[in-house]
Write a structure and sequence with these properties.
This protein folds into two domains: 262 residues, no CATH class; 103 residues. Strands 1-2 form a two-stranded antiparallel ribbon. Helix 16 packs antiparallel against helix 17. It is mainly alpha-helical.
Length: 410
Protein backbone atom coordinates (compact mmCIF):
# COMPACT_ATOMS: atom_id res chain seq x y z
CA UNK A 1 0.00 0.00 0.00
CA UNK A 2 1.14 3.57 -0.54
CA UNK A 3 0.51 4.53 3.08
CA UNK A 4 -2.64 6.52 2.41
CA UNK A 5 -5.50 6.09 4.85
CA UNK A 6 -8.60 4.56 3.28
CA UNK A 7 -11.55 6.88 3.79
CA UNK A 8 -14.84 5.55 5.09
CA UNK A 9 -17.91 7.80 5.45
CA UNK A 10 -18.94 5.99 8.64
CA UNK A 11 -15.47 5.68 10.19
CA UNK A 12 -16.30 8.13 12.94
CA UNK A 13 -19.50 6.24 13.84
CA UNK A 14 -17.59 2.94 13.94
CA UNK A 15 -14.91 4.42 16.19
CA UNK A 16 -17.55 5.87 18.50
CA UNK A 17 -19.36 2.53 18.71
CA UNK A 18 -16.06 0.80 19.48
CA UNK A 19 -15.30 3.28 22.28
CA UNK A 20 -18.76 2.73 23.77
CA UNK A 21 -18.38 -1.05 23.70
CA UNK A 22 -14.95 -0.83 25.34
CA UNK A 23 -16.35 1.45 28.03
CA UNK A 24 -19.31 -0.85 28.65
CA UNK A 25 -16.99 -3.87 28.77
CA UNK A 26 -14.95 -2.17 31.48
CA UNK A 27 -18.08 -1.28 33.45
CA UNK A 28 -19.28 -4.87 33.26
CA UNK A 29 -15.95 -6.24 34.45
CA UNK A 30 -14.87 -4.15 37.43
CA UNK A 31 -13.83 -0.56 38.13
CA UNK A 32 -10.21 -1.41 37.29
CA UNK A 33 -11.19 -2.87 33.93
CA UNK A 34 -10.23 -6.43 34.84
CA UNK A 35 -12.28 -9.19 33.16
CA UNK A 36 -14.49 -11.45 35.29
CA UNK A 37 -12.98 -14.74 36.47
CA UNK A 38 -12.90 -17.59 33.98
CA UNK A 39 -15.66 -20.18 34.10
CA UNK A 40 -13.28 -23.13 34.18
CA UNK A 41 -15.84 -25.98 33.98
CA UNK A 42 -17.38 -24.56 30.80
CA UNK A 43 -14.06 -23.49 29.34
CA UNK A 44 -12.48 -26.93 29.82
CA UNK A 45 -15.57 -28.75 28.56
CA UNK A 46 -15.71 -26.69 25.37
CA UNK A 47 -11.95 -26.89 24.80
CA UNK A 48 -11.61 -30.63 25.40
CA UNK A 49 -14.63 -31.69 23.35
CA UNK A 50 -13.66 -29.38 20.47
CA UNK A 51 -10.08 -30.65 20.60
CA UNK A 52 -11.21 -34.27 20.41
CA UNK A 53 -13.67 -33.49 17.62
CA UNK A 54 -10.96 -31.82 15.52
CA UNK A 55 -8.20 -34.39 16.10
CA UNK A 56 -9.22 -37.76 17.50
CA UNK A 57 -12.50 -38.09 15.60
CA UNK A 58 -10.96 -37.73 12.10
CA UNK A 59 -7.86 -39.75 13.09
CA UNK A 60 -9.97 -42.67 14.28
CA UNK A 61 -12.11 -42.50 11.16
CA UNK A 62 -9.05 -42.64 8.88
CA UNK A 63 -7.31 -45.42 10.81
CA UNK A 64 -10.23 -47.58 11.93
CA UNK A 65 -13.36 -46.28 10.23
CA UNK A 66 -16.83 -45.86 11.73
CA UNK A 67 -19.63 -48.39 11.59
CA UNK A 68 -22.96 -47.43 10.02
CA UNK A 69 -24.62 -47.81 13.44
CA UNK A 70 -22.38 -45.09 14.86
CA UNK A 71 -23.33 -42.67 12.07
CA UNK A 72 -27.02 -43.44 12.51
CA UNK A 73 -26.77 -42.94 16.28
CA UNK A 74 -24.93 -39.64 15.67
CA UNK A 75 -27.67 -38.34 13.35
CA UNK A 76 -30.56 -39.53 15.52
CA UNK A 77 -29.15 -38.24 18.81
CA UNK A 78 -28.15 -34.92 17.23
CA UNK A 79 -31.69 -34.46 15.94
CA UNK A 80 -33.36 -35.53 19.19
CA UNK A 81 -31.17 -33.32 21.38
CA UNK A 82 -31.59 -30.31 19.09
CA UNK A 83 -35.36 -30.77 18.96
CA UNK A 84 -35.43 -31.12 22.75
CA UNK A 85 -33.84 -27.68 22.92
CA UNK A 86 -35.98 -26.05 20.21
CA UNK A 87 -39.36 -27.64 21.00
CA UNK A 88 -38.72 -28.23 24.70
CA UNK A 89 -36.36 -25.78 26.37
CA UNK A 90 -37.22 -22.94 24.00
CA UNK A 91 -40.80 -23.04 22.74
CA UNK A 92 -42.34 -25.02 25.62
CA UNK A 93 -40.50 -24.10 28.83
CA UNK A 94 -39.16 -20.61 27.99
CA UNK A 95 -42.15 -19.22 26.09
CA UNK A 96 -45.06 -21.54 26.95
CA UNK A 97 -46.24 -21.50 23.34
CA UNK A 98 -48.12 -24.76 23.91
CA UNK A 99 -48.85 -27.29 26.65
CA UNK A 100 -47.28 -30.75 26.66
CA UNK A 101 -48.17 -34.16 28.06
CA UNK A 102 -45.95 -35.12 31.05
CA UNK A 103 -44.42 -37.97 29.02
CA UNK A 104 -43.37 -35.51 26.31
CA UNK A 105 -41.95 -33.14 28.92
CA UNK A 106 -39.91 -36.00 30.37
CA UNK A 107 -38.41 -36.80 26.95
CA UNK A 108 -37.50 -33.15 26.34
CA UNK A 109 -35.93 -32.84 29.77
CA UNK A 110 -33.96 -36.07 29.41
CA UNK A 111 -32.50 -35.29 26.00
CA UNK A 112 -32.23 -31.61 26.89
CA UNK A 113 -29.81 -32.70 29.60
CA UNK A 114 -27.92 -34.62 26.91
CA UNK A 115 -27.56 -31.38 24.94
CA UNK A 116 -25.46 -30.15 27.89
CA UNK A 117 -26.81 -26.59 27.90
CA UNK A 118 -27.76 -26.52 31.59
CA UNK A 119 -31.09 -27.42 33.17
CA UNK A 120 -34.34 -26.29 31.58
CA UNK A 121 -34.90 -24.02 34.57
CA UNK A 122 -31.60 -22.16 34.22
CA UNK A 123 -31.79 -22.13 30.41
CA UNK A 124 -35.29 -20.65 30.45
CA UNK A 125 -34.39 -18.06 33.07
CA UNK A 126 -31.49 -16.80 30.97
CA UNK A 127 -33.55 -16.83 27.80
CA UNK A 128 -36.39 -14.84 29.32
CA UNK A 129 -33.87 -12.26 30.53
CA UNK A 130 -32.45 -12.14 27.00
CA UNK A 131 -35.90 -11.31 25.62
CA UNK A 132 -36.67 -8.82 28.36
CA UNK A 133 -33.39 -6.90 28.01
CA UNK A 134 -32.40 -7.69 24.43
CA UNK A 135 -29.34 -5.77 23.19
CA UNK A 136 -28.66 -4.28 26.63
CA UNK A 137 -24.93 -5.01 27.13
CA UNK A 138 -25.27 -4.94 30.90
CA UNK A 139 -28.27 -7.26 31.25
CA UNK A 140 -28.69 -9.34 28.09
CA UNK A 141 -26.73 -12.56 28.86
CA UNK A 142 -25.58 -13.06 25.26
CA UNK A 143 -25.92 -9.55 23.88
CA UNK A 144 -25.02 -9.45 20.17
CA UNK A 145 -23.93 -5.82 20.49
CA UNK A 146 -20.87 -7.11 22.34
CA UNK A 147 -19.72 -8.92 19.20
CA UNK A 148 -19.95 -12.29 17.48
CA UNK A 149 -17.51 -14.09 19.79
CA UNK A 150 -19.25 -12.95 22.97
CA UNK A 151 -22.77 -13.80 21.82
CA UNK A 152 -21.68 -17.12 20.30
CA UNK A 153 -19.65 -18.61 23.17
CA UNK A 154 -17.67 -15.94 25.03
CA UNK A 155 -20.48 -15.17 27.47
CA UNK A 156 -20.11 -18.69 28.90
CA UNK A 157 -16.32 -18.65 29.27
CA UNK A 158 -16.26 -16.08 32.07
CA UNK A 159 -18.57 -15.43 35.00
CA UNK A 160 -20.15 -12.24 33.68
CA UNK A 161 -22.78 -10.70 35.98
CA UNK A 162 -25.25 -10.62 33.08
CA UNK A 163 -24.96 -14.41 32.85
CA UNK A 164 -26.04 -15.12 36.42
CA UNK A 165 -29.42 -16.90 36.24
CA UNK A 166 -32.27 -14.94 37.81
CA UNK A 167 -34.85 -17.55 38.80
CA UNK A 168 -37.50 -14.95 39.63
CA UNK A 169 -38.40 -15.03 35.93
CA UNK A 170 -39.24 -18.75 36.02
CA UNK A 171 -41.27 -19.10 39.19
CA UNK A 172 -43.99 -21.16 37.51
CA UNK A 173 -41.35 -23.57 36.17
CA UNK A 174 -39.97 -24.03 39.67
CA UNK A 175 -43.38 -25.44 40.61
CA UNK A 176 -43.29 -27.98 37.76
CA UNK A 177 -42.22 -31.29 39.38
CA UNK A 178 -40.53 -32.62 36.23
CA UNK A 179 -38.58 -29.41 35.62
CA UNK A 180 -37.61 -29.25 39.29
CA UNK A 181 -36.47 -32.89 39.25
CA UNK A 182 -34.27 -32.34 36.20
CA UNK A 183 -32.79 -29.22 37.80
CA UNK A 184 -31.93 -31.04 41.04
CA UNK A 185 -30.41 -34.05 39.28
CA UNK A 186 -29.06 -32.27 36.22
CA UNK A 187 -25.42 -33.36 36.64
CA UNK A 188 -26.30 -37.04 37.00
CA UNK A 189 -28.69 -36.90 34.04
CA UNK A 190 -26.18 -35.03 31.87
CA UNK A 191 -23.35 -37.47 32.62
CA UNK A 192 -25.59 -40.49 32.23
CA UNK A 193 -26.94 -39.36 28.86
CA UNK A 194 -23.63 -38.12 27.44
CA UNK A 195 -21.40 -40.93 28.71
CA UNK A 196 -23.66 -43.80 29.69
CA UNK A 197 -25.91 -43.83 26.61
CA UNK A 198 -23.08 -43.77 24.00
CA UNK A 199 -21.25 -46.50 25.96
CA UNK A 200 -24.40 -48.60 26.08
CA UNK A 201 -25.01 -48.14 22.35
CA UNK A 202 -21.36 -48.92 21.60
CA UNK A 203 -21.55 -52.11 23.63
CA UNK A 204 -24.80 -53.11 21.92
CA UNK A 205 -23.36 -52.61 18.42
CA UNK A 206 -19.84 -53.83 19.18
CA UNK A 207 -17.95 -50.56 18.64
CA UNK A 208 -17.65 -48.60 21.87
CA UNK A 209 -14.88 -46.18 20.83
CA UNK A 210 -16.46 -45.25 17.50
CA UNK A 211 -19.87 -44.77 19.09
CA UNK A 212 -18.49 -42.57 21.87
CA UNK A 213 -16.57 -40.40 19.41
CA UNK A 214 -19.44 -39.89 16.94
CA UNK A 215 -22.64 -40.15 18.99
CA UNK A 216 -20.96 -38.70 22.06
CA UNK A 217 -18.27 -36.10 21.36
CA UNK A 218 -18.86 -34.99 17.77
CA UNK A 219 -22.63 -34.88 18.27
CA UNK A 220 -22.19 -32.69 21.35
CA UNK A 221 -19.80 -30.21 19.68
CA UNK A 222 -21.98 -29.79 16.60
CA UNK A 223 -25.14 -29.49 18.70
CA UNK A 224 -23.54 -26.78 20.82
CA UNK A 225 -22.38 -24.62 17.96
CA UNK A 226 -25.60 -24.98 16.00
CA UNK A 227 -27.52 -23.64 19.01
CA UNK A 228 -24.94 -20.92 19.58
CA UNK A 229 -25.42 -19.68 16.00
CA UNK A 230 -28.92 -18.57 16.99
CA UNK A 231 -27.48 -16.22 19.62
CA UNK A 232 -24.76 -14.91 17.33
CA UNK A 233 -25.42 -15.17 13.57
CA UNK A 234 -29.20 -14.78 13.89
CA UNK A 235 -28.55 -11.42 15.58
CA UNK A 236 -25.92 -10.24 13.10
CA UNK A 237 -26.68 -11.55 9.59
CA UNK A 238 -30.11 -11.60 7.95
CA UNK A 239 -33.26 -9.56 7.34
CA UNK A 240 -35.63 -7.72 9.66
CA UNK A 241 -39.08 -7.81 8.07
CA UNK A 242 -41.11 -7.65 11.32
CA UNK A 243 -39.24 -5.17 13.50
CA UNK A 244 -36.09 -3.05 13.49
CA UNK A 245 -36.30 -2.40 17.22
CA UNK A 246 -33.65 -5.04 18.01
CA UNK A 247 -30.79 -6.96 16.39
CA UNK A 248 -32.71 -10.21 15.78
CA UNK A 249 -32.63 -11.33 12.15
CA UNK A 250 -34.41 -13.86 9.97
CA UNK A 251 -31.67 -16.10 8.57
CA UNK A 252 -32.72 -19.00 6.36
CA UNK A 253 -29.34 -20.74 6.56
CA UNK A 254 -29.38 -20.71 10.36
CA UNK A 255 -32.99 -21.97 10.25
CA UNK A 256 -31.88 -24.85 8.02
CA UNK A 257 -29.17 -25.82 10.52
CA UNK A 258 -31.18 -25.35 13.72
CA UNK A 259 -34.53 -27.00 13.01
CA UNK A 260 -36.26 -23.69 12.24
CA UNK A 261 -34.85 -21.41 14.92
CA UNK A 262 -33.21 -19.05 12.44
CA UNK A 263 -36.37 -17.01 11.78
CA UNK A 264 -35.35 -14.94 14.73
CA UNK A 265 -36.76 -11.56 13.81
CA UNK A 266 -40.24 -13.06 13.75
CA UNK A 267 -39.56 -14.87 17.01
CA UNK A 268 -38.49 -11.75 18.89
CA UNK A 269 -41.55 -9.87 17.66
CA UNK A 270 -43.97 -12.73 18.39
CA UNK A 271 -42.22 -14.80 21.06
CA UNK A 272 -45.39 -16.57 22.22
CA UNK A 273 -46.17 -18.09 18.82
CA UNK A 274 -45.19 -21.77 18.65
CA UNK A 275 -43.98 -21.17 15.08
CA UNK A 276 -40.76 -19.45 14.06
CA UNK A 277 -41.10 -20.01 10.34
CA UNK A 278 -44.63 -18.67 9.95
CA UNK A 279 -44.85 -19.08 6.17
CA UNK A 280 -45.77 -22.53 4.85
CA UNK A 281 -42.58 -22.73 2.81
CA UNK A 282 -40.19 -21.74 5.61
CA UNK A 283 -38.04 -24.55 7.03
CA UNK A 284 -39.24 -25.11 10.60
CA UNK A 285 -39.18 -28.82 11.58
CA UNK A 286 -39.78 -27.80 15.20
CA UNK A 287 -43.13 -26.29 14.19
CA UNK A 288 -44.00 -29.41 12.21
CA UNK A 289 -43.08 -31.67 15.11
CA UNK A 290 -45.21 -29.68 17.55
CA UNK A 291 -48.11 -29.91 15.09
CA UNK A 292 -47.62 -33.68 14.80
CA UNK A 293 -47.52 -34.00 18.57
CA UNK A 294 -50.74 -32.01 18.72
CA UNK A 295 -52.42 -34.45 16.33
CA UNK A 296 -51.10 -37.32 18.46
CA UNK A 297 -52.64 -35.83 21.61
CA UNK A 298 -49.29 -35.05 23.27
CA UNK A 299 -49.48 -31.26 22.81
CA UNK A 300 -52.38 -28.84 23.11
CA UNK A 301 -53.31 -25.15 23.22
CA UNK A 302 -50.87 -24.18 20.49
CA UNK A 303 -50.55 -20.39 20.42
CA UNK A 304 -50.68 -18.60 17.05
CA UNK A 305 -50.49 -14.89 16.37
CA UNK A 306 -53.35 -13.74 14.07
CA UNK A 307 -52.11 -13.23 10.53
CA UNK A 308 -53.42 -9.64 10.56
CA UNK A 309 -51.02 -8.77 13.42
CA UNK A 310 -48.12 -10.34 11.53
CA UNK A 311 -48.92 -8.39 8.39
CA UNK A 312 -49.41 -5.23 10.45
CA UNK A 313 -45.90 -5.60 11.89
CA UNK A 314 -44.47 -6.06 8.41
CA UNK A 315 -46.25 -2.96 7.13
CA UNK A 316 -45.20 -0.88 10.13
CA UNK A 317 -41.60 -1.83 9.36
CA UNK A 318 -42.10 -0.87 5.71
CA UNK A 319 -43.56 2.51 6.67
CA UNK A 320 -40.63 3.16 9.00
CA UNK A 321 -38.17 2.41 6.21
CA UNK A 322 -40.15 4.53 3.77
CA UNK A 323 -40.03 7.44 6.21
CA UNK A 324 -36.25 7.05 6.58
CA UNK A 325 -35.87 6.88 2.80
CA UNK A 326 -37.96 10.02 2.30
CA UNK A 327 -35.80 11.88 4.81
CA UNK A 328 -32.84 11.26 2.50
CA UNK A 329 -34.67 12.63 -0.55
CA UNK A 330 -35.94 16.05 0.48
CA UNK A 331 -34.26 17.60 -2.57
CA UNK A 332 -35.57 14.97 -4.99
CA UNK A 333 -37.93 16.29 -7.72
CA UNK A 334 -40.33 13.43 -6.90
CA UNK A 335 -40.27 14.07 -3.15
CA UNK A 336 -43.77 15.60 -2.87
CA UNK A 337 -45.33 12.87 -5.01
CA UNK A 338 -43.68 10.04 -3.07
CA UNK A 339 -44.52 11.64 0.27
CA UNK A 340 -48.20 11.92 -0.71
CA UNK A 341 -48.27 8.28 -1.78
CA UNK A 342 -46.70 7.12 1.48
CA UNK A 343 -49.08 9.30 3.50
CA UNK A 344 -52.08 7.90 1.60
CA UNK A 345 -50.97 4.33 2.17
CA UNK A 346 -50.43 5.03 5.86
CA UNK A 347 -53.90 6.56 6.22
CA UNK A 348 -55.42 3.48 4.61
CA UNK A 349 -53.34 1.25 6.86
CA UNK A 350 -54.41 3.10 10.02
CA UNK A 351 -58.09 2.79 9.11
CA UNK A 352 -57.72 -0.96 8.45
CA UNK A 353 -56.02 -1.46 11.82
CA UNK A 354 -58.72 0.50 13.65
CA UNK A 355 -61.50 -1.47 11.91
CA UNK A 356 -59.81 -4.81 12.59
CA UNK A 357 -59.31 -3.95 16.26
CA UNK A 358 -62.97 -3.00 16.65
CA UNK A 359 -64.14 -6.18 14.91
CA UNK A 360 -61.89 -8.35 17.07
CA UNK A 361 -63.21 -6.70 20.23
CA UNK A 362 -66.77 -7.24 19.01
CA UNK A 363 -65.99 -10.88 18.19
CA UNK A 364 -64.55 -11.54 21.65
CA UNK A 365 -67.43 -9.77 23.41
CA UNK A 366 -70.07 -11.62 21.37
CA UNK A 367 -68.42 -14.98 21.91
CA UNK A 368 -68.19 -14.32 25.64
CA UNK A 369 -71.90 -13.65 25.87
CA UNK A 370 -72.96 -16.11 23.15
CA UNK A 371 -74.87 -13.35 21.39
CA UNK A 372 -74.31 -14.30 17.77
CA UNK A 373 -75.67 -17.07 15.62
CA UNK A 374 -73.73 -19.04 12.99
CA UNK A 375 -74.51 -16.59 10.15
CA UNK A 376 -73.36 -13.57 12.14
CA UNK A 377 -70.14 -15.33 13.14
CA UNK A 378 -69.52 -16.21 9.51
CA UNK A 379 -70.17 -12.61 8.44
CA UNK A 380 -67.79 -11.29 11.08
CA UNK A 381 -65.11 -13.77 10.04
CA UNK A 382 -65.55 -12.73 6.41
CA UNK A 383 -65.01 -9.07 7.29
CA UNK A 384 -61.87 -9.93 9.27
CA UNK A 385 -60.59 -12.04 6.37
CA UNK A 386 -61.27 -9.17 3.94
CA UNK A 387 -59.19 -6.85 6.11
CA UNK A 388 -56.34 -9.37 6.17
CA UNK A 389 -56.49 -9.66 2.38
CA UNK A 390 -56.47 -5.87 2.13
CA UNK A 391 -53.30 -5.66 4.21
CA UNK A 392 -51.71 -8.28 1.99
CA UNK A 393 -52.40 -6.17 -1.09
CA UNK A 394 -51.14 -3.07 0.66
CA UNK A 395 -47.96 -4.89 1.63
CA UNK A 396 -47.32 -5.62 -2.06
CA UNK A 397 -47.98 -1.97 -2.96
CA UNK A 398 -45.56 -0.83 -0.27
CA UNK A 399 -42.92 -3.19 -1.63
CA UNK A 400 -43.22 -1.50 -5.02
CA UNK A 401 -43.25 1.95 -3.44
CA UNK A 402 -40.16 1.10 -1.40
CA UNK A 403 -38.36 0.02 -4.57
CA UNK A 404 -39.34 3.30 -6.25
CA UNK A 405 -38.01 5.27 -3.28
CA UNK A 406 -34.67 3.50 -3.55
CA UNK A 407 -34.52 4.09 -7.30
CA UNK A 408 -35.37 7.77 -6.83
CA UNK A 409 -32.45 8.13 -4.42
CA UNK A 410 -30.09 6.72 -7.04
Amino acid sequence: MDGKILRCPHLGEIALLHDRLVFQEKRMNDPAGRPPPRNWPSLLMFAITLGIALTVVPWYGIVHGYALAAWVAFAVLLSVTELSITCGYHRLFSHATYQAHPALKAVFLLFGAMALQNSALVWSAGHRVHHRFIDDPERDPYCARRGFWFSHIGWMLRNYPSGDPDLKYVRELQKDPLVAFQHRHYLALAVGMNVGLPLLLGWAFGNIVGMVLLAGVLRLVISHHLTFCINSLAHIVGTRPYTTANTARDNGVVALLTFGEGYHNFHHQFAHDYRNGVRWWQWDPSKWLINALHWAGLAKNLKRVPWFKIRRAMLETQFLRAKQELARQVSSPRFDELRRRVAGEYESFSKAVATWTALREQSVADAKHALVDRWERSHLSSRLKALEDGLHEQYRRMQLLGAQLRIARV
